[in-house]
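SEVERITY: medium
COMPONENT: batch folding queue
REPORTER: lab tech (J.R.)

DESCRIPTION
The queue accepted two submissions in a row. Attaching both inputs and their returned structure tokens so the on-call engineer can compare them side by side.

ATTACHMENT 1
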Amino acid sequence: IGFDASFFNDKLELILDWWKKDTDDLLYQLPLAGVTGNFASAPAVNIASMSNSGLDFQIIGRGNFTEDLSFEATFNSSFLKNEITALAPGLDFFDGPAYRGIQPTRNAINQPLSSFFGYEVIGYFNSAEEVANSPAQDGKGLGRFRYADVNGDGAITPDDRTFIGSPVPDWTGGATLNLRYKNLALETFWFASVGNDIFNQSKWFTDFFGTFEGSAKGQAAKRSWTPELGNNAAAPIWESATNLSTSGVANSWYVEDGSYVRLQRLALSYDFTDLTEKLGLSRFRLGVSANNIWTITNYSGLDPGIGGGADTNFGIDVGNYPIAPQYLFTLEMGI
């Protein structure tokens, strides 16, 4: 359902769309029975379904501040809801692949694609009393992760794992502002993503001595658990143990808010109209531009705009190198 309108002789435009897309017969590889051995390939069949819905709108404004100074501004916005609605018969979910022994994603009916799945961290064990009086938990000890007993059975088991985040953003948007003063032009483009989570598995390398001993050369030990820091510590106790209560499983400690705002493009150019005629050219322009310049985010990793990966296993940061800023100088000439 769409609505388009323009006002004031096209100086203001408004575009609004509400949409819903249900996709059936998505390809899904049916699991094979173990008796088939390692030589058979799982068949891909058209069986799964997914629902996407959203609200998109765009506002465009253009005009003149003065006779010589003009502008054009655009703001676009998109809200998205993603949900898996069916898988294979008798199958409610399937897990994504493991990396370094950690399996962070689960694709389940009524959940977004590549949802993060694991134990809910409610703090650290800060005293011997907490260790003794808490539900049974493999490897529990001072300074280690303390998990929520989700099902209330008095023990921390795989049944206590729950959905701990989604890499699908609730909202994305962009804004451009272009200004022109006589022959001088300025272009800017901003992009924002809000409401998505990132599974920051790069912390597996940097914040646990037991998983990667080279991390001892960094600053991780200084922000790890001590009795004085307690639940304010940024990481568990600095030790070599690796188990369910330390670095051995997916949990909410890895999940961070991936929202960000980025100045994606800034460009400045000048048209030399006087020289154009003298040199017998149809066009003569000099310009400079920069891309991926400045990012505002609370995400602790290198880049909140991490790459995707597979559709059913994305939003996971294993130390992805960020896109470097790019600076370009341009000369445009036309005969």
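ATTACHMENT 2
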Amino acid sequence: MRSKWIEHEGKKVFYQDFSRQIYNSTAVKAELDEVQKVVLAEPRDSVLVLSDFRDTSVGSDLLSSMNAASTATKAYVHKTAVLGVTGIKRKLADLLTALTGQSLKYFDDIDAAKAWLVQE
């Protein structure tokens, strides 16, 4: 698993690393399965998530897996910041948000994303 816990300003953030997986939906699905297990082991409404999709192709083949994972973990996630979602990926992410009701905030800069996650 590439994803890991990181710390920012004294708070624990779960960095979900889906980056650099251009056209590798198998690797993204495998990582998604692993991160889902980690999130579900945490208390409800407690997890600060930073999902990194930079240089990763997200197509309709991943939408059902992402929808299922998001639905399953929604109650455990407090906030989600997403990196690398632009263009068609943004349209798919907006669709995912509409389907699951899980709010996502998009960033181009990792430091801005981390700062937003830890602010209350």
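NOTES FROM REPORTER
The chain has a mean pLDDT of 89.
No errors were logged for either attachment.
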